[in-house]
Amino acid sequence: MLTATMLPLKMLGLLMLFFSMCDADGECLPELILNPPEVLGEYGDTVTVNCSSADSDNFEMYGMVGNTQWQPEYENSVTWNVTLSDWNVTAECVKQLNNTSCRKELKIRIYQNPEEVVVGPTKNASALEGTQYQLQCDVLNVAPVQHLTVSWYRDGETIRTDNFTHLNATKGLASESSTLTATFSRAENGAQFHCGAHLDFGEHGSKPAVNSSVHAVSVHYAAELKNQTEYVDGNEGDHVTLKCEAEGRPAPVFSWSLDGKNLMETTSDLNITLATNAIYICTASNYLGNTTKLFNVYVMKTNVMGAPSAITTPEPSTPKDCPLVLTPAKIVVRFGDPAEVECSTSAKGLQRMGWEAPSGATASETNVTIWTVDQVKDWATDPLCYLNTKDKQCSVKLKITLYKTADSVSVSALDQGPMVEGTEYLLKCDITNVAPVQKLKVTWYRGNETVETQMFNDTSEIPVNVSSTFRITPERDSDGELFRCDAKLHLGPNGPKHVPTKSSSPFKAVVHYKPLVKTCPGSYAGVEQEFSIDKLSCDFAGNPPPTVKWYYKEKLINASQPLTRDQSGEYTAQIENHLGSINTSVLVSIEYRKPVVGKAIWWLIILLVFVIVFIAIGVAQHYKTHGQYSFVSAKPDNDGSGIPMTTQPNGVSV
């Protein structure tokens, strides 16, 4: 019986040896050689891999990419392609010899240069003199982040370098940020900063840097006057100009008052036509503060020494007493256009009448004269029609308004860089070379909605440059909104039928705001080895686009890694950009995958059945050999009878 039981055990040992040989995936002798032995490639590239062996035996070789097998070759070398379009792609070489196989895995590292590098302030768009100001460099969609290096530049010179080697090794795209804090004086206004990001793989070299645009720092400080009090002396009736010299950033705006009353003047210089003893106050202000200056004007009265002799020549009369009629009485003319006005009279004793003007002057002895010019090109044009009779001399001045539409109208932000949600900003509408400015009306639009209008008190009649400002406190919904301004000359009933208008191009607001969760399920059920966290239908928003990191049991995970059943539980997403971060959680339940019986399982079952039958036959033959019993063919003879069993000496029938 000992011998009878030993044989099945031997057969079972052979069977175990057979399976161990089928699973011989250890080291290959001779060793498999991969060329290249490892790959560092850009996402989306395709690399060619060669695998060779010094073994001269006849064997099968093939390459694997993931679960995909390339065409086998019965040679000692095989070549195949690997497309780097999956951050978790794997590749290996397989050598199959009889019932044994060995494998060698290709080391793969995939990278992607930053999609964009953006530099901007973290909070205030402008730096306040003497206070800390922080810039942030956002590197968007780069991999792998643990090889990322960020360099800061001021006026073209490197001032700091940050690396991210401390981060855990991850696969897939991510976004990271670097911040720079500095304090500025007003003399440093306009300092230019930018940052560059590149991937450094040590002995394998560095990839080309991606640079941000240049951010010029605008240093703001409160309005300041050069002196606080000034004394002005003169004679009564003199023309006096008061100069209110101030500096500040943003540039200060001015206002004037006399005896507590606003004079409606907004320029730094105040012109006084007839000076009298008075105290004028100039106020210069910007959003950081204001300051005032006192002008003490003192004039001396002029003594009249004597009266002039009697006038013997006719004095010009006032227009009310002058029998001249202008047709039309008022005109509005675009600078450079033609003009024509008729002057007529019904006065008797006419000696002479005509026009006095820089161009188009006439003289006539008839009762009608016409001022006509092909082009009005003198801003000092002030046509006057005069009349001389035997008894009087009089004149009437033509009321003429020369106008010119703006050469350009443009909208810009006083503070460079993107806006930040909830922070107040100033938009500026610049209107160049327009006249007359007192007829100008600026209208601000948010989309197609009118949000503000402004008129001007400047009495200048020649073309000037003016600007209008509009305060905005953007919200996240303001991101991408379009702002524009119109400059219209409202010239009254004598003006052109269509109001002369010049419009700016739209200014697109770029608003940075904290991350938010738009949609994300509270729970989800997935199938093991088929579901990964990045397949959740979560939609996150933020500007700059936030980075998303997933955690399981407070540990950072690879969101593209398929999950198993024992990894069910709560997963937390951390959504973050330089303005803040938020978290959201999803309860994930991983279910068993339906069993799939592959070809290998069926072959194993067939093999096991074969081995069991083989062992049974062996046992039967063993007993027959030792005289216990034997099997005789039960196949019937030609006459239909089988071979009968015979009785052995030990009593066993056979």
From TrEMBL:
<feature type="domain" description="Ig-like">
    <location>
        <begin position="515"/>
        <end position="589"/>
    </location>
</feature>
<comment type="similarity">
    <text>Belongs to the immunoglobulin superfamily. ICAM family.</text>
</comment>
<feature type="signal peptide">
    <location>
        <begin position="1"/>
        <end position="24"/>
    </location>
</feature>
<dbReference type="GO" id="GO:0005178">
    <property type="term" value="F:integrin binding"/>
</dbReference>
<dbReference type="Pfam" id="PF03921">
    <property type="entry name" value="ICAM_N"/>
</dbReference>
<keyword id="KW-0393">Immunoglobulin domain</keyword>
<keyword id="KW-1133">Transmembrane helix</keyword>
<dbReference type="InterPro" id="IPR003987">
    <property type="entry name" value="ICAM_VCAM_N"/>
</dbReference>
<dbReference type="GO" id="GO:0016020">
    <property type="term" value="C:membrane"/>
</dbReference>
<keyword id="KW-0677">Repeat</keyword>
<dbReference type="InterPro" id="IPR013783">
    <property type="entry name" value="Ig-like_fold"/>
</dbReference>
<feature type="domain" description="Ig-like">
    <location>
        <begin position="407"/>
        <end position="487"/>
    </location>
</feature>
<dbReference type="InterPro" id="IPR036179">
    <property type="entry name" value="Ig-like_dom_sf"/>
</dbReference>
<dbReference type="GO" id="GO:0098609">
    <property type="term" value="P:cell-cell adhesion"/>
</dbReference>
<dbReference type="InterPro" id="IPR047012">
    <property type="entry name" value="ICAM_VCAM"/>
</dbReference>
<dbReference type="Pfam" id="PF13927">
    <property type="entry name" value="Ig_3"/>
</dbReference>
<feature type="domain" description="Ig-like">
    <location>
        <begin position="114"/>
        <end position="213"/>
    </location>
</feature>
<keyword id="KW-0130">Cell adhesion</keyword>
<dbReference type="Pfam" id="PF07654">
    <property type="entry name" value="C1-set"/>
</dbReference>
<dbReference type="InterPro" id="IPR007110">
    <property type="entry name" value="Ig-like_dom"/>
</dbReference>
<keyword id="KW-0325">Glycoprotein</keyword>
<feature type="domain" description="Ig-like">
    <location>
        <begin position="236"/>
        <end position="298"/>
    </location>
</feature>
<keyword id="KW-0472">Membrane</keyword>
<keyword id="KW-0732">Signal</keyword>
<dbReference type="InterPro" id="IPR003598">
    <property type="entry name" value="Ig_sub2"/>
</dbReference>
<protein>
    <submittedName>
        <fullName>Angiopoietin-like 6</fullName>
    </submittedName>
</protein>
<dbReference type="InterPro" id="IPR013768">
    <property type="entry name" value="ICAM_N"/>
</dbReference>
<feature type="transmembrane region" description="Helical">
    <location>
        <begin position="600"/>
        <end position="620"/>
    </location>
</feature>
<keyword id="KW-0812">Transmembrane</keyword>
<dbReference type="InterPro" id="IPR003599">
    <property type="entry name" value="Ig_sub"/>
</dbReference>
<dbReference type="InterPro" id="IPR003597">
    <property type="entry name" value="Ig_C1-set"/>
</dbReference>
<keyword id="KW-1015">Disulfide bond</keyword>
